[in-house]
């Protein structure tokens, strides 16, 4: 006996809308079993992971801070995924954006530069991420190289490049040999929205990106072009849409937003360049994009939910002595549950015997 997936003739909109919720609940149940097997209370873990962060004012601020890069990267990825193109290297584009923008911060360090530095840093971050995103796009349309492999491998190139800079030419000579650059000047630091708040202007950039993307995808010819290219590539060609131009455009947009996330995080939170500037935002944003159904509003909600796991994971490491890697494992389980929920909504499981009967 084996089972097959057969397409459903009709898909309930309610089932499709509730699929991410069911996936999230299932992922929590699986994680609860794992925590129980590790000798901890699943109820206590749920309290630490979810309830405590949502009841603490500082954690609520931190929630939005950690959701900001996830929103920016996931919004960019939604352009690629809607066109059925697979940018798996947003983590590398995030790093290169931080490097490009951070270069200007280090170049103007101690020079009493004016207010132009920060906008220029943000622009350089976008340009750096976009250029790095265009590499797998160019290799795909010119040589037919699989964009999944190239974008993923370029992540490690970017990370090693940042590691080299932090330990070598950009290392702070007064930093006691730690692999980090000098601290950015105030002119190169992204300010908080309100005094005393940890929420910086990057959160506003993310919300603006969500609104603009909602308009582009829902009300413009470019949004229709992406949908048609992803759903029916032959029809897109007959309509006169160039697949090569679409590939270059969506990878540039995706990389640019990932680069913006990188320089926003470095200038708004970290304040300097160092080998590790991300807990895996670029990879986690893939889960955010699919958990949000590639919809801008859904991505906003999904980013907040996934950011909650980062905060809860840090608290669980301290209070319950659970490894921080468990958070990454949970995010992977969540992605698998989302994909499985989508499959079960769109397909029906049919059991088939060796003779061909049901």
From TrEMBL:
It holds the Pfam family BPD_transp_2. One of its GO terms (cellular component) is plasma membrane. Signal peptide: none annotated. It is found in: Cell membrane. Keywords: Cell membrane, Membrane, Transmembrane, Transmembrane helix. InterPro entries: ABC_transp_permease. The chain crosses the membrane at residues 21-43, 63-81, 93-110, 116-135, 147-165, 199-224, 245-264, 276-292, 299-320, 326-345. CDD domains: TM_PBP1_transp_TpRbsC_like. GO terms for molecular function: transmembrane transporter activity. It is a multi-pass membrane protein. This is Sugar ABC transporter permease.
């Amino acid at each position: 006996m084996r089972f097959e997936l057969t397409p459903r003739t009709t898909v309930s909109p309610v089932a499709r809308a509730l699929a991410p919720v069911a996936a999230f609940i299932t992922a929590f149940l699986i994680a609860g079993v794992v925590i129980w097997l590790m000798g901890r209370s699943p109820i206590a873990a749920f309290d630490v992971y979810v309830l405590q962060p949502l009841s603490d004012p500082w954690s609520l601020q931190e929630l939005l801070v950690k959701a900001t890069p996830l929103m920016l990267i996931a919004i960019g990825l939604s352009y690629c995924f809607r066109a059925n193109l697979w940018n798996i290297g947003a983590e590398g584009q995030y790093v290169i954006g931080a490097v490009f923008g951070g270069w200007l911060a280090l170049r103007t360090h101690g020079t009493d530069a004016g207010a132009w530095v920060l906008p220029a840093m943000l622009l350089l971050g976008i340009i750096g991420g976009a250029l790095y995103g265009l590499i797998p796009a160019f290799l795909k349309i010119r040589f037919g190289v699989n964009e999944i492999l190239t974008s993923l491998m370029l992540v490690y190139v970017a990370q090693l490049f940042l590691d080299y800079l932090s330990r070598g030419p950009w290392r702070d000579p007064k930093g006691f040999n730690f692999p980090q650059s000098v601290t950015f000047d105030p002119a190169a630091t992204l300010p908080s929205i309100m005094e005393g708040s940890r929420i910086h202007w990057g959160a506003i950039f993310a919300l603006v990106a969500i609104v603009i993307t909602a308009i582009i995808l829902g009300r413009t010819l470019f949004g229709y072009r992406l949908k048609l290219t992803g759903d029916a590539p032959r029809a897109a060609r007959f309509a006169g849409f160039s697949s090569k131009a679409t590939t270059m455009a969506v990878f540039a947009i995706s990389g640019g937003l990932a680069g913006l996330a990188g320089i926003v995080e470095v200038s708004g939170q970290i304040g300097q360049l160092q080998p590790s500037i991300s807990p895996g935002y670029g990879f986690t944003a893939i889960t955010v994009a699919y958990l949000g159904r590639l919809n801008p509003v859904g991505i906003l909600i999904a980013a907040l939910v996934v950011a909650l796991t980062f905060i809860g994971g840090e608290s669980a490491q301290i209070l319950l002595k659970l490894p921080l890697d468990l958070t990454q494992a949970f995010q992977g389980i969540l992605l698998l549950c989302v994909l499985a929920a989508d499959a079960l909504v769109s397909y029906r499981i049919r059991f088939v015997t060796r003779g061909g009967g049901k």
